[in-house]
Structure formats: structure tokens, C-alpha cells
Specification:
By secondary structure, this protein is of the alpha+beta class. The protein is built from 16 helices and 10 strands. A hairpin with a 4-residue loop joins strand 2 and strand 3 (about 120-130).
Length: about 400
């Protein structure tokens, strides 16, 4: 349980904690890769790695990133893997050309490296960010590469690169992680800083910053966060306990939509929360429909309710605790068009008479951009429904029935 927190405690966090300001600046700093939304998108990281490992690209690193990454990976191997060159051998490579294939035979990255000596290497990199390896996947890729006649003279190295340090199921693969990508990239940025143009430097620094947040366990951001939590634990626990969640964000957006466009939509917003957004059509805003208790004293006895859940968003017309004679009439009507929800036995308290799915999804997103996008989708579906014949028919029929309510 969070202990009592005062206003001065909250003010102290934002005014008197230098770590908070520093952390906020770091997290709020513009980052091109965050703007593009690639933080945990596997295919985008594979594309960036392909760009970094190609000496012909505009980053100005030549073959340094490829060699530095491979050096770090083989140097930090915990198990012996046959055929893998040592870090000293990789450092001595005089690379003549690098051909990079993306999604060739479903392989994330295949690098065909030719040395000035004529020696040829095929470096296979299977990349995992959030997904896990499938049963037999790595072995199948290895076998497919071995079967290609044009690669028979190449020496093969198989690398399993993951964000969460998952061990490969095939012992012929070298385990690699994104901390090593970060190490290689920052080494290259430092080495080429004086000769690098402003554009490539900014791009590479942004990607390194993203990798630091994603993969480096003991980085400056983590240390700042730990210091803040140690010094302001009660306040931060209090803030976390009252944090907005996806349901809050989406519900707030839907309520704002109904409130801001109430006149155009001819609706009256009603008491809502993070899971249920309620309103009535203007034609239901009459004295007889303001004497309910189901949603609080003086609430409607019949209203429209949009429900948010992990599997989607639904809209329904629902009655709550109306006088028995009137709800008997509504129950009888609910068995025929325009209503579409009728139970064999009349419910005792709340009675749904019409329902429609506005949007299907599996699990509520957690990223801000995806939450906001989902909110806009639901708003658009709600707007469309409020202009539909079904909504008009149900609303009109209940309006007629409300005239009989005394």
C-alpha cells in the first residue's frame, strides 16, 4: 500500500530532483527511430543492420561495423562453435566486397563476404526482437544454406541475434545480443567521429541511443531511474498507482468526442468511466427518462453504452431498473426488428435490447501511438454507427415507448 503523499512531495520531485529533470530530458529528446516507431519492430532493425553492415552505404563506416560486431560476438562466446573465426582473424580481414541479402529463403540477413585473398564467407544472422525461435527453425536455415551449390566454397558462420538473450536451439549457432550491436556501433561512432558528416552522425547516434534503452542493462537511464526511485519511492509509487492506462486514454477520447460534437450528433453525454462510455439521444432527454437509479440517482432508465474490453469495443442500448410495466413492454419489443438482443427470460436489473460490435482486437495495446490510433478507429466507427439506419430505428422506437412512461 502506498503511504500518504502530499502536494509538496510531488512538487519536490519535479522541482528539487535534478535526476528527474535529466531523465526527462533524455527520454524526451528527439530520436528519429522513435518517431518512426521502430523500437521493437524486428524487420526494421534487420533493415538498419543491413545498412550498417554494407560498406557501400552512406554511413561512412566502411566495413568497420561489420568487423567490430563480429569481433565482439566471437570474443564473448561462451561455447565453442566449429568453423567460427577468432576475433584476431576477423580484425585481419581485408574485405573486398560484401553482398547482403534480406529475407532470402526466409533468412533475416545473409552476408556474403569476399576477402582480398579470395576467401569467401557466408554469415547468416537470424534476428529476434520480441518473437521467439520456432522449433527446428535455425537448423532448417542452416541446412538450406548448406544445400546451395553456389555457396559450397564459402565458410559458414551462423549467428542467432536476440534482444532478450534467448539461447539458440541449434548448437551450430553463435549466440549474440543487442548489447553487442550497441557496443560495436558506439565504438565505430567514436572512431569515425571527426570524419563523419553531421547527417550520418545524428542518425547513428539516435540508433545507438535507442539500443542503449532497449538492450543495455546498466546504462545511464537505468542508473538515473534507480536513484530517483530510491530517493522518492513513495511519490513514484503514488504516481504509478494513479497512472493513466489504455482504457483511460481511449475512454477520455470517446467522451471528448461525444461532448465536443453533442450538438451535431444530437446526443447528451452521461456518467461514464474507463470501461463504459454512456450517452442518450436528445429525443430521450425527457423528464420520464431522468428518474432512474441504475447508474446513480437521477440517471436515465434507458441509454446507449459503449463498452471497452480486451477483445474489442461494443455499443448497446440498455435499460436499467425501469418501472416493471414499462420494461415488460420493452422486453416484448426486443424480440423483433430493429432490436437484435432478446433473452428467453427477462433480466431482473439491466436489460440489453440491441448490441453491435464496433471493433475487434486481441489485447489492449500499450504503446501511446497505437493506443491513440485505436481510439481514433473506435471514434470513427462510433461516428459511423450514430449515422446508421440501425441506430436511428432503435432510437426512434424507444423514443416512442418513452412517451408511455409515467
Amino acid at each position: 500500500m502506498v503511504s500518504e503523499v502530499s502536494r509538496s512531495d510531488l512538487e519536490a520531485l519535479v522541482v528539487s530532483a535534478p535526476e528527474f529533470s535529466k531523465l526527462e530530458r533524455r527520454l524526451g529528446r528527439y530520436n528519429a527511430f522513435k518517431v518512426l516507431g521502430i523500437s521493437r519492430t524486428e524487420i526494421r532493425h534487420s533493415n538498419i543492420l543491413a545498412w550498417l553492415m554494407s560498406p557501400r552505404e552512406s554511413h561512412g563506416l566502411g566495413t568497420d561495423f561489420l568487423q567490430r560486431f563480429l569481433q565482439i560476438v566471437v570474443h564473448e562466446m561462451t561455447d565453442t562453435v566449429d568453423g567460427v573465426p577468432s576475433s584476431l582473424e576477423v580484425d585481419a580481414w581485408d574485405i573486398a566486397s560484401v553482398e547482403i541479402r534480406r529475407e532470402w529463403m526466409h533468412i533475416d540477413l545473409l552476408l556474403l563476404v569476399k576477402l582480398q585473398t579470395g576467401e569467401e564467407w557466408a554469415l547468416l544472422i537470424e534476428n529476434k526482437i520480441e518473437s521467439l525461435q520456432s522449433e527446428g527453425q535455425l537448423s532448417a536455415y542452416k541446412a538450406a544454406l548448406a544445400a546451395r551449390p553456389e555457396l559450397q566454397n564459402h565458410k559458414h558462420v551462423f549467428i542467432f541475434l536476440t534482444l532478450h538473450r534467448e539461447p539458440p536451439q541449434d548448437c551450430g549457432y553463435v549466440q549474440a545480443n543487442y548489447d553487442q550491436v550497441y557496443q560495436a556501433l558506439t565504438d565505430c561512432i567514436d572512431h569515425h567521429e571527426d570524419a563523419m558528416g553531421a547527417g550520418p552522425r545524428t542518425l547513428l547516434t539516435d540508433y545507438a541511443s535507442l539500443l542503449e534503452e532497449l538492450a543495455v542493462e546498466d546504462n545511464e537511464l537505468v542508473r538515473l531511474a534507480k536513484t530517483l526511485y530510491r530517493n522518492h519511492r513513495d511519490v513514484l509509487d503514488f504516481i504509478y498507482q494513479h497512472r493513466p492506462d489504455p482504457y483511460d486514454r481511449i475512454s477520455t477520447r470517446l467522451q471528448a468526442f461525444l461532448r465536443d460534437e453533442a450538438t451535431a450528433l444530437s446526443v447528451v453525454p452521461k456518467n461514464s468511466d474507463r470501461f463504459y462510455i454512456r450517452f442518450i439521444p436528445r429525443s430521450w432527454d425527457i423528464a420520464a427518462n431522468q428518474q432512474g437509479v441504475a447508474w446513480g440517482s437521477g440517471s436515465p432508465i434507458v441509454l446507449w453504452e459503449l463498452t471497452l474490453g480486451d477483445k474489442g469495443a461494443s455499443i448497446k442500448a440498455v435499460e436499467g431498473m425501469a418501472p416493471d410495466a414499462w420494461r415488460q413492454k420493452l422486453y416484448a419489443l426486443s424480440s423483433a426488428y430493429p432490436f437484435n438482443y432478446h433473452r428467453n427470460v427477462m433480466p431482473q436489473s439491466w436489460m440489453t435490447v440491441y448490441t453491435k460490435k464496433l471493433d475487434h482486437f486481441h489485447g489492449m495495446p500499450q504503446e501511446d501511438d497505437k493506443i491513440d490510433a485505436l481510439a481514433e478507429t473506435i471514434v470513427a466507427r462510433l461516428r459511423q454507427f450514430l449515422g446508421s439506419p440501425e441506430y436511428a430505428s432503435v432510437t426512434d422506437r424507444i423514443t416512442e415507448l418513452l412517451a408511455e412512461l409515467k
